[in-house]
Amino acid sequence: MWMLEQRADTSMEVKTKAFFHGMSFDLVKHQSVDSNQTSIIEFFLVGFQVSQALRISLFCLFVLIFCGTICGNLLIITLVSTSKNLHTPMYFFISQLSISDISLATDIVPKMLHILLNNGATIAFIDCITQLYFFCALETCECLLLTVMSYDRYVAICKPLYYNSIMTDGYCVTLTIICWLFGFLFTLISNISTAKLNFCDGNIIDHVYCDILPLLELACSETFIVHLEIYMIGFAIVLIPTVIIVVSYTYIVLEVLRIPSSTGRHKAFSTCSSHLTVVSIFYWTMFSVYAVPAQRQTVTISKILSLLYTVFTPLLNPLIYSLRNADIRKAAQETLHKLMTW
């Protein structure tokens, strides 16, 4: 396995001092006497190197965002589960998106809060790879779920007479299972390859969490295969869903424009507006981080853009679906009324 082997006769731990932005921390390495190579067994996440007052302010902000994310998405899941009016394919997929958002926030935010409090923090190699795996898997799941939701809107608007026969409960569950399985299986390939790399050129990750690109920059072994896997998997789980979404909404727009009354067109577009807003935010931030060449954006901008779709988007999703959706607002009011009458 790619985990480091500790042998008393051939290896020893060496501690050296490293400095970054005027602060010191322990750089723990595992050194093999036979090969004279050093492999990193833990990384140092830099986070945001700002003043203490600003770090405390950011800490409080992210705590509020994290609490709001958990509460907002749990509310969506609860309403969809308990309200009969929300037992439809669209809201079922929204609840699955909320599960993905809660999981993503839980994977990223707690460690980030620890980094803010300590002005940077170490993370074990296995913990870094684990965080990277769940981050990639959950982002993939969200990408696929958004694609399935666009297909659901296409069927609802372009084939309304066949909607109930196509989007059956069994079919919706099958699509959801495929999204989750593909998300966790596809990303496993690149994460295993990443974990097998040798990291010996340094352990400083100038980021707020373990992301694939900053991690590969520290590898001292050949990364061509890993990059190839990332591009191939990225093509399958990003570009193809993007094409499906664009094609779905092209047909939706063409169909809506055929509706003679403006009221009918507005009603049809309103069923897609929330989903289209979420898709736009998700893809804009993701493409800004991974599609824009690294030399065109500073490290700070890259960190901020990464926070947009890992921290802020999971909070925005339930807000968008609740504030712009009459059915969810009505279900929330009915649930609140029942609780007050008990």
Notes on the structure:
This protein is mostly helical and 342 residues long. The chain has 10 helices and 6 strands. Strands 1-2-3 form a 3-stranded antiparallel beta sheet, with no helix packed on it. The protein has a 3-stranded mixed beta sheet with strand order 5-4-6. β1 and β2 (23-32) form a beta hairpin. The chain is globular and about 65 Å long. The model is unreliable at 1-38 (pLDDT under 50).
For this entry, give a set of tags.
342 residues, mainly alpha, three-stranded antiparallel sheet, 10 helices
How would you summarize what this structure contains?
This protein is mainly α and 342 residues long.
Cross-sheet strand order for the largest sheet: 1-2-3
Question: Which word captures the global form?
Answer: globular
SS summary, helix count? 10
List SSEs in N-to-C order.
EEEEHHEHHHEHHHHH
Summarize the main sheet.
3 strands, antiparallel
Helix content: 55-70%
The parts where pLDDT drops under 50 for at least 5 residues are 1-38
Give the helix/strand class: mainly alpha
Mean pLDDT, to the nearest integer, reads: 83
* Tally of DSSP β-strands: 6
C-alpha end-to-end distance: 57 Å
Radius of gyration: 23 Å
Q: How much of the polypeptide forms β-strand, as a percent range?
A: 5-15%
